[in-house]
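User: Show me a protein chain along with its predicted structure.
Assistant: Here is one chain, sequence first, then structure tokens.
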Amino acid sequence: LPEEAAVLKEAIKSRGMNSILCVPMQSLNKRIGLLGLSARQENRQWQHEVTTLLELSGQIFVSALEHKRSE
């Protein structure tokens, strides 16, 4: 993380996480949350495929929420 994220980095470390990957979830161009993964035992370089799957999972959650709201 960049130096501007020092507070976030400390919060992540204090919870025992060595690596974290988060993707935004958006509905109607509005951010409604984050979906993330964390690793406690090692520092990770997240593979592109993992990022893509996490983004797709977020889109599925958002689609389900939008469908529920429209009922």
